[in-house]
Amino acid sequence: MASSTHWNVVRFFVTTLYLWMGWILFTWSLSLGNLLLGLVQSGLVALFTWPVFVEENEAARRSHVPRVHFLIVYLLFLIVQMYGASFRVLWQILRGRINPGVVHFRTRLRTDIARTALANSITLTPGTITLFLDDDHLIVHWLDSRTTHSRYARKLIAESFERVLKRIWA
Amino acid sequence: MNWGTVIFIGLGVIFGIMGNLGVLIFPDVYTRLHASSTASTSSVFSIFVACMFAAGWSPMTGKILVIAFFFFITNPISSHLIARYAWEKDVVPWRRSYAERQRLSHTSDE
Amino acid sequence: MDQLLQYALWFFLGSILVSMVRVLVGPTTADRMIGLNMVSAQILAILVLLAVREERSSFLDVALVYDIFGFIGILAMVRYFGRKRG
Protein backbone atom coordinates (compact mmCIF):
# COMPACT_ATOMS: atom_id res chain seq x y z
CA MET A 1 0.00 0.00 0.00
CA ALA A 2 2.77 2.40 0.99
CA SER A 3 4.75 1.68 -2.16
CA SER A 4 1.66 2.34 -4.27
CA THR A 5 1.18 5.79 -2.65
CA HIS A 6 4.85 6.53 -3.24
CA TRP A 7 4.47 5.55 -6.88
CA ASN A 8 1.40 7.80 -7.24
CA VAL A 9 3.38 10.80 -5.98
CA VAL A 10 6.20 9.98 -8.42
CA ARG A 11 3.65 9.74 -11.25
CA PHE A 12 2.23 13.17 -10.36
CA PHE A 13 5.66 14.81 -10.29
CA VAL A 14 6.81 13.18 -13.51
CA THR A 15 3.68 14.49 -15.25
CA THR A 16 4.29 17.98 -13.86
CA LEU A 17 7.92 17.90 -14.99
CA TYR A 18 7.08 16.88 -18.54
CA LEU A 19 4.34 19.53 -18.82
CA TRP A 20 6.70 22.18 -17.47
CA MET A 21 9.37 21.20 -19.99
CA GLY A 22 6.77 21.57 -22.73
CA TRP A 23 5.81 25.02 -21.39
CA ILE A 24 9.44 26.21 -21.38
CA LEU A 25 10.02 24.91 -24.90
CA PHE A 26 6.86 26.61 -26.17
CA THR A 27 7.33 30.03 -24.59
CA TRP A 28 11.13 30.06 -24.97
CA SER A 29 11.88 32.65 -22.29
CA LEU A 30 13.57 32.22 -18.92
CA SER A 31 12.13 35.10 -16.87
CA LEU A 32 11.13 34.21 -13.31
CA GLY A 33 7.43 35.11 -13.62
CA ASN A 34 7.08 33.05 -16.75
CA LEU A 35 8.68 29.99 -15.12
CA LEU A 36 6.50 30.26 -11.99
CA LEU A 37 3.32 30.69 -14.05
CA GLY A 38 4.25 27.62 -16.08
CA LEU A 39 4.97 25.57 -12.94
CA VAL A 40 1.61 26.47 -11.33
CA GLN A 41 -0.31 25.75 -14.51
CA SER A 42 1.42 22.44 -15.20
CA GLY A 43 0.76 21.41 -11.59
CA LEU A 44 -2.93 22.19 -12.07
CA VAL A 45 -3.13 20.23 -15.31
CA ALA A 46 -1.18 17.35 -13.76
CA LEU A 47 -3.71 17.12 -10.91
CA PHE A 48 -6.32 16.02 -13.43
CA THR A 49 -4.21 14.05 -15.91
CA TRP A 50 -1.62 12.02 -13.97
CA PRO A 51 -3.57 8.73 -14.00
CA VAL A 52 -3.71 8.91 -17.81
CA PHE A 53 -0.21 10.15 -18.57
CA VAL A 54 1.86 7.54 -16.70
CA GLU A 55 0.26 4.08 -16.73
CA GLU A 56 0.17 2.06 -13.54
CA ASN A 57 2.00 -1.12 -14.42
CA GLU A 58 5.39 -2.71 -14.13
CA ALA A 59 6.48 -1.81 -17.62
CA ALA A 60 5.90 1.93 -17.04
CA ARG A 61 7.66 1.92 -13.69
CA ARG A 62 11.12 1.47 -15.14
CA SER A 63 10.70 3.85 -18.01
CA HIS A 64 10.21 7.43 -16.93
CA VAL A 65 13.83 8.65 -16.93
CA PRO A 66 15.73 8.25 -20.22
CA ARG A 67 19.52 8.34 -20.49
CA VAL A 68 19.98 11.64 -22.25
CA HIS A 69 23.34 11.04 -23.96
CA PHE A 70 22.07 7.87 -25.62
CA LEU A 71 18.92 9.77 -26.60
CA ILE A 72 21.00 12.34 -28.51
CA VAL A 73 23.02 9.56 -30.17
CA TYR A 74 19.74 7.92 -31.12
CA LEU A 75 18.35 11.10 -32.71
CA LEU A 76 21.50 11.52 -34.84
CA PHE A 77 21.38 7.83 -35.81
CA LEU A 78 17.70 8.24 -36.74
CA ILE A 79 18.48 11.18 -39.04
CA VAL A 80 21.20 9.18 -40.82
CA GLN A 81 18.84 6.19 -41.21
CA MET A 82 16.09 8.50 -42.50
CA TYR A 83 18.26 9.94 -45.25
CA GLY A 84 19.54 6.49 -46.27
CA ALA A 85 16.02 5.10 -46.49
CA SER A 86 14.82 8.20 -48.39
CA PHE A 87 17.44 7.67 -51.09
CA ARG A 88 16.43 4.01 -51.35
CA VAL A 89 12.73 4.94 -51.77
CA LEU A 90 13.71 7.61 -54.30
CA TRP A 91 15.56 5.01 -56.36
CA GLN A 92 12.53 2.71 -56.24
CA ILE A 93 10.20 5.50 -57.40
CA LEU A 94 12.54 6.29 -60.29
CA ARG A 95 12.88 2.66 -61.34
CA GLY A 96 9.18 1.91 -60.84
CA ARG A 97 9.91 -1.61 -59.59
CA ILE A 98 8.31 -1.95 -56.17
CA ASN A 99 7.57 -5.17 -54.34
CA PRO A 100 5.41 -4.33 -51.29
CA GLY A 101 4.53 -6.83 -48.59
CA VAL A 102 3.34 -7.17 -44.99
CA VAL A 103 5.49 -8.82 -42.30
CA HIS A 104 4.83 -9.66 -38.63
CA PHE A 105 7.48 -9.83 -35.96
CA ARG A 106 7.96 -9.55 -32.20
CA THR A 107 10.25 -7.02 -30.60
CA ARG A 108 12.49 -7.80 -27.64
CA LEU A 109 12.14 -4.40 -25.93
CA ARG A 110 10.54 -4.48 -22.48
CA THR A 111 9.22 -1.02 -21.67
CA ASP A 112 6.13 0.55 -23.23
CA ILE A 113 7.80 3.82 -24.16
CA ALA A 114 10.69 2.04 -25.89
CA ARG A 115 8.20 0.02 -27.96
CA THR A 116 6.37 3.22 -28.88
CA ALA A 117 9.65 4.84 -29.87
CA LEU A 118 10.52 1.80 -31.99
CA ALA A 119 7.17 1.93 -33.82
CA ASN A 120 7.57 5.67 -34.31
CA SER A 121 11.08 5.26 -35.76
CA ILE A 122 9.95 2.50 -38.09
CA THR A 123 7.21 4.76 -39.41
CA LEU A 124 9.56 7.76 -39.66
CA THR A 125 12.01 6.05 -42.00
CA PRO A 126 10.44 5.99 -45.48
CA GLY A 127 9.95 2.48 -46.82
CA THR A 128 8.53 0.89 -43.65
CA ILE A 129 5.25 1.75 -41.90
CA THR A 130 3.89 0.28 -38.67
CA LEU A 131 0.31 -0.84 -39.29
CA PHE A 132 -0.43 -2.26 -35.85
CA LEU A 133 1.26 -2.54 -32.47
CA ASP A 134 -0.07 -4.86 -29.76
CA ASP A 135 2.22 -5.26 -26.73
CA ASP A 136 5.31 -6.65 -28.44
CA HIS A 137 3.77 -7.71 -31.74
CA LEU A 138 4.26 -5.40 -34.70
CA ILE A 139 2.71 -5.56 -38.18
CA VAL A 140 4.86 -3.67 -40.65
CA HIS A 141 4.16 -2.76 -44.26
CA TRP A 142 7.35 -2.86 -46.28
CA LEU A 143 7.90 -1.23 -49.66
CA ASP A 144 10.73 -3.51 -50.80
CA SER A 145 9.95 -6.78 -49.09
CA ARG A 146 12.95 -9.04 -49.36
CA THR A 147 11.59 -11.73 -47.04
CA THR A 148 8.43 -12.92 -45.30
CA HIS A 149 10.24 -14.82 -42.55
CA SER A 150 9.52 -13.00 -39.30
CA ARG A 151 12.86 -13.39 -37.48
CA TYR A 152 14.82 -12.35 -40.54
CA ALA A 153 12.49 -9.38 -41.12
CA ARG A 154 13.07 -8.24 -37.53
CA LYS A 155 16.79 -8.46 -38.12
CA LEU A 156 16.55 -6.31 -41.25
CA ILE A 157 14.05 -3.71 -40.00
CA ALA A 158 14.28 -3.31 -36.26
CA GLU A 159 17.56 -4.65 -34.91
CA SER A 160 19.65 -1.54 -35.46
CA PHE A 161 17.06 0.60 -33.66
CA GLU A 162 16.60 -1.89 -30.84
CA ARG A 163 20.32 -1.97 -30.08
CA VAL A 164 20.29 1.73 -29.14
CA LEU A 165 16.77 1.86 -27.64
CA LYS A 166 17.66 -0.91 -25.17
CA ARG A 167 20.26 1.41 -23.70
CA ILE A 168 18.04 4.52 -23.44
CA TRP A 169 15.20 3.07 -21.37
CA ALA A 170 16.93 0.27 -19.51
CA MET B 1 27.02 32.23 -49.79
CA ASN B 2 26.24 29.56 -47.22
CA TRP B 3 26.89 26.10 -48.66
CA GLY B 4 24.93 24.21 -45.97
CA THR B 5 21.78 26.09 -46.96
CA VAL B 6 22.30 25.40 -50.66
CA ILE B 7 22.91 21.67 -50.18
CA PHE B 8 19.98 21.09 -47.85
CA ILE B 9 17.51 23.15 -49.93
CA GLY B 10 18.62 21.09 -52.93
CA LEU B 11 17.96 17.86 -50.99
CA GLY B 12 14.56 19.17 -49.91
CA VAL B 13 13.60 20.05 -53.48
CA ILE B 14 14.68 16.63 -54.80
CA PHE B 15 12.76 14.73 -52.11
CA GLY B 16 9.72 16.98 -52.61
CA ILE B 17 9.57 16.34 -56.36
CA MET B 18 10.09 12.59 -56.05
CA GLY B 19 7.63 12.22 -53.18
CA ASN B 20 4.89 14.05 -55.08
CA LEU B 21 5.61 11.93 -58.15
CA GLY B 22 5.42 8.77 -56.04
CA VAL B 23 2.09 9.78 -54.51
CA LEU B 24 0.70 10.30 -57.99
CA ILE B 25 1.94 7.06 -59.60
CA PHE B 26 1.84 4.42 -56.84
CA PRO B 27 -0.99 1.86 -56.93
CA ASP B 28 -2.56 1.72 -53.43
CA VAL B 29 -2.90 3.50 -50.07
CA TYR B 30 0.05 1.91 -48.27
CA THR B 31 2.60 2.44 -51.03
CA ARG B 32 1.43 6.04 -51.47
CA LEU B 33 2.00 6.51 -47.76
CA HIS B 34 5.66 5.52 -48.21
CA ALA B 35 6.10 8.11 -50.96
CA SER B 36 4.30 10.77 -48.92
CA SER B 37 6.59 10.12 -45.97
CA THR B 38 9.54 10.78 -48.29
CA ALA B 39 7.97 14.05 -49.39
CA SER B 40 6.76 15.26 -46.03
CA THR B 41 9.33 14.00 -43.52
CA SER B 42 12.65 14.07 -45.36
CA SER B 43 11.98 17.10 -47.52
CA VAL B 44 10.57 19.26 -44.74
CA PHE B 45 13.32 18.20 -42.35
CA SER B 46 15.93 19.18 -44.94
CA ILE B 47 14.28 22.59 -45.21
CA PHE B 48 14.46 22.94 -41.40
CA VAL B 49 18.20 22.17 -41.44
CA ALA B 50 18.74 24.64 -44.29
CA CYS B 51 16.90 27.32 -42.31
CA MET B 52 19.06 26.60 -39.28
CA PHE B 53 22.16 27.15 -41.44
CA ALA B 54 20.68 30.36 -42.83
CA ALA B 55 19.71 31.75 -39.42
CA GLY B 56 23.12 31.10 -37.87
CA TRP B 57 23.55 31.25 -34.09
CA SER B 58 20.42 33.00 -32.86
CA PRO B 59 17.30 32.25 -30.75
CA MET B 60 15.60 31.35 -34.02
CA THR B 61 17.80 28.26 -34.42
CA GLY B 62 16.68 26.96 -31.05
CA LYS B 63 13.04 27.45 -31.94
CA ILE B 64 13.49 25.70 -35.28
CA LEU B 65 15.15 22.83 -33.38
CA VAL B 66 12.06 22.58 -31.13
CA ILE B 67 9.77 22.60 -34.18
CA ALA B 68 11.87 19.87 -35.82
CA PHE B 69 11.69 17.77 -32.65
CA PHE B 70 7.89 18.07 -32.45
CA PHE B 71 7.68 17.32 -36.16
CA PHE B 72 9.72 14.14 -35.61
CA ILE B 73 7.15 13.02 -33.04
CA THR B 74 3.87 14.07 -34.66
CA ASN B 75 4.41 13.28 -38.35
CA PRO B 76 5.01 9.50 -37.93
CA ILE B 77 1.99 9.33 -35.63
CA SER B 78 -0.31 10.88 -38.21
CA SER B 79 0.94 8.61 -40.98
CA HIS B 80 0.55 5.61 -38.65
CA LEU B 81 -3.02 6.76 -37.93
CA ILE B 82 -3.82 6.84 -41.64
CA ALA B 83 -2.24 3.41 -42.17
CA ARG B 84 -4.11 1.89 -39.25
CA TYR B 85 -7.38 3.43 -40.46
CA ALA B 86 -6.88 1.75 -43.85
CA TRP B 87 -5.85 -1.53 -42.15
CA GLU B 88 -8.95 -1.59 -39.95
CA LYS B 89 -11.17 -0.81 -42.94
CA ASP B 90 -9.75 -4.04 -44.48
CA VAL B 91 -8.04 -2.39 -47.42
CA VAL B 92 -6.06 -5.24 -48.98
CA PRO B 93 -2.43 -4.32 -49.73
CA TRP B 94 -1.52 -4.36 -53.40
CA ARG B 95 0.97 -7.06 -54.40
CA ARG B 96 2.75 -8.04 -57.54
CA SER B 97 1.55 -11.22 -59.20
CA TYR B 98 3.38 -14.41 -58.29
CA ALA B 99 5.11 -14.81 -61.66
CA GLU B 100 6.39 -11.24 -61.60
CA ARG B 101 7.76 -11.67 -58.08
CA GLN B 102 9.60 -14.83 -59.17
CA ARG B 103 11.07 -13.01 -62.13
CA LEU B 104 12.17 -10.06 -59.95
CA SER B 105 13.84 -12.23 -57.35
CA HIS B 106 15.51 -14.20 -60.13
CA THR B 107 16.95 -11.10 -61.78
CA SER B 108 18.01 -9.53 -58.49
CA ASP B 109 20.01 -12.63 -57.59
CA GLU B 110 22.37 -12.20 -60.51
CA MET C 1 20.75 33.97 -50.11
CA ASP C 2 17.44 35.81 -50.04
CA GLN C 3 16.91 34.86 -53.66
CA LEU C 4 17.46 31.15 -52.87
CA LEU C 5 14.90 31.20 -50.04
CA GLN C 6 12.47 32.94 -52.41
CA TYR C 7 12.89 30.16 -54.97
CA ALA C 8 12.33 27.52 -52.28
CA LEU C 9 9.12 29.30 -51.29
CA TRP C 10 7.87 29.25 -54.89
CA PHE C 11 8.81 25.59 -55.21
CA PHE C 12 6.83 24.61 -52.14
CA LEU C 13 3.80 26.59 -53.30
CA GLY C 14 3.83 24.59 -56.55
CA SER C 15 4.40 21.38 -54.65
CA ILE C 16 1.33 22.04 -52.50
CA LEU C 17 -0.73 22.46 -55.67
CA VAL C 18 0.52 19.07 -56.94
CA SER C 19 -0.29 17.48 -53.57
CA MET C 20 -3.83 18.86 -53.75
CA VAL C 21 -4.38 16.69 -56.86
CA ARG C 22 -4.35 13.61 -54.62
CA VAL C 23 -6.87 15.26 -52.29
CA LEU C 24 -9.20 15.96 -55.21
CA VAL C 25 -9.01 12.66 -57.14
CA GLY C 26 -8.13 10.16 -54.38
CA PRO C 27 -10.47 7.18 -54.65
CA THR C 28 -10.73 6.46 -50.90
CA THR C 29 -10.83 8.58 -47.75
CA ALA C 30 -7.35 7.45 -46.71
CA ASP C 31 -5.87 8.78 -49.96
CA ARG C 32 -7.36 12.19 -49.33
CA MET C 33 -5.95 12.16 -45.81
CA ILE C 34 -2.48 11.39 -47.21
CA GLY C 35 -2.78 14.46 -49.44
CA LEU C 36 -3.87 16.65 -46.53
CA ASN C 37 -1.00 15.39 -44.38
CA MET C 38 1.50 16.32 -47.10
CA VAL C 39 -0.08 19.75 -47.57
CA SER C 40 0.12 20.52 -43.85
CA ALA C 41 3.78 19.41 -43.67
CA GLN C 42 4.71 21.60 -46.62
CA ILE C 43 2.88 24.61 -45.19
CA LEU C 44 5.07 24.10 -42.12
CA ALA C 45 8.17 24.32 -44.34
CA ILE C 46 6.79 27.51 -45.94
CA LEU C 47 6.21 29.10 -42.53
CA VAL C 48 9.77 28.36 -41.38
CA LEU C 49 11.23 29.67 -44.65
CA LEU C 50 9.18 32.87 -44.32
CA ALA C 51 10.31 33.35 -40.73
CA VAL C 52 13.98 33.07 -41.70
CA ARG C 53 13.58 35.33 -44.75
CA GLU C 54 11.71 38.07 -42.93
CA GLU C 55 13.79 37.65 -39.72
CA ARG C 56 10.58 37.58 -37.72
CA SER C 57 10.30 34.85 -35.09
CA SER C 58 6.55 35.17 -34.53
CA PHE C 59 6.07 33.02 -37.65
CA LEU C 60 7.87 30.24 -35.76
CA ASP C 61 5.25 30.28 -33.01
CA VAL C 62 2.59 29.96 -35.69
CA ALA C 63 4.53 27.04 -37.18
CA LEU C 64 4.78 25.25 -33.83
CA VAL C 65 1.05 25.52 -33.18
CA TYR C 66 0.25 24.62 -36.81
CA ASP C 67 2.30 21.43 -36.45
CA ILE C 68 0.26 20.26 -33.47
CA PHE C 69 -3.06 21.31 -34.98
CA GLY C 70 -2.36 19.44 -38.21
CA PHE C 71 -1.78 16.31 -36.14
CA ILE C 72 -4.97 16.83 -34.12
CA GLY C 73 -6.89 17.39 -37.36
CA ILE C 74 -5.78 14.02 -38.75
CA LEU C 75 -6.61 12.40 -35.39
CA ALA C 76 -10.13 13.88 -35.40
CA MET C 77 -10.74 12.75 -38.99
CA VAL C 78 -9.61 9.20 -38.22
CA ARG C 79 -11.83 9.05 -35.13
CA TYR C 80 -14.80 10.42 -37.06
CA PHE C 81 -14.57 8.18 -40.14
CA GLY C 82 -13.30 5.11 -38.31
CA ARG C 83 -16.06 4.65 -35.76
CA LYS C 84 -18.21 1.57 -36.00
CA ARG C 85 -21.72 1.92 -37.37
CA GLY C 86 -24.71 0.61 -35.44
Structural description of this entry:
The complex is a heterotrimer of chains A (about 170), B (about 110) and C (about 90). With about 170 residues, chain A is mainly alpha-helical. Chain A has seven helices and three strands. Chain A folds into two domains: about 55 residues, no CATH class; about 100 residues, no CATH class. In chain A, strand 2 and strand 3 form a beta hairpin. Chain A is elongated. Chain A starts with a helix and ends with a helix. Chain B has one domain. Chain B is built from four helices and no strands. Chain C is an all-alpha fold and about 90 residues long. Chain C has one domain. Chain C is about 85% helix and about 0% strand. In chain C, helix 1 packs antiparallel against helix 2. The chains are: A mainly alpha (about 170), B mainly alpha (about 110), C mainly alpha (about 90). Chains A and B meet through helix 4, helix 5 and strand 2 of A and helix 1, helix 2 and helix 3 of B.
Furnish the topology, listing elements before pairings.
The complex is a heterotrimer of chains A (170), B (110) and C (86).
Chain A lengths: L1 H26 L4 H22 L4 H4 L6 H28 L5 E6 L5 H13 L3 E7 L2 E6 L7 H8 L1 H10 L2
Antiparallel strand pairs in A: 1-3, 2-3
Chain B lengths: L2 H23 L3 H27 L3 H30 L9 H12 L1
Helix pairs in contact in B: 1-2, 2-3
Chain C lengths: L1 H24 L3 H26 L3 H25 L4
Helix pairs in contact in C: 1-2, 2-3
Please outline what is shown here.
The complex is a heterotrimer of chains A (170), B (110) and C (86). Chain A contains seven helices and three strands. Helix content of chain A is 65%, strand content 11%.
What would the keywords be for this entry?
heterotrimer; B: 110 residues; mainly alpha; 4 helices; 84% helix; 0% strand; C: 86 residues; flat
Query: How many discrete domains of chain A?
Result: 2
Q: Please give the largest β-sheet of chain C.
A: none
**Helical content class of chain A:** 55-70%
> Outline of chain C, from the CA principal axes?
flat
Beta-strand percent range of chain C: under 5%
Quaternary structure of the protein: heterotrimer
Structural class of chain A: mainly alpha
The major β-sheet of chain A equals:
3 strands, antiparallel
The strand count of chain C comes to 0
The arrangement of helices and strands of chain A along the chain is HHHHEHEEHH
| Helix-residue proportion of chain C | over 70%
Distance between the termini of chain C: 58 Å
Note poorly predicted spans of chain C. none
Number of strand segments of chain A: 3
**What is the gyration radius of chain A calculated from CA atoms?**
20 Å
* Count of runs of 4 or more consecutive helical residues of chain C: 3
Number of helices of chain A: 7
Strand order in the sheet with the most strands of chain A: 1-3-2
Q: What is the overall shape of chain A?
A: elongated
Q: What's the SSE pattern of chain C? A: HHH
Count interface residues per chain for the largest interface: B-C, 49 and 42 residues
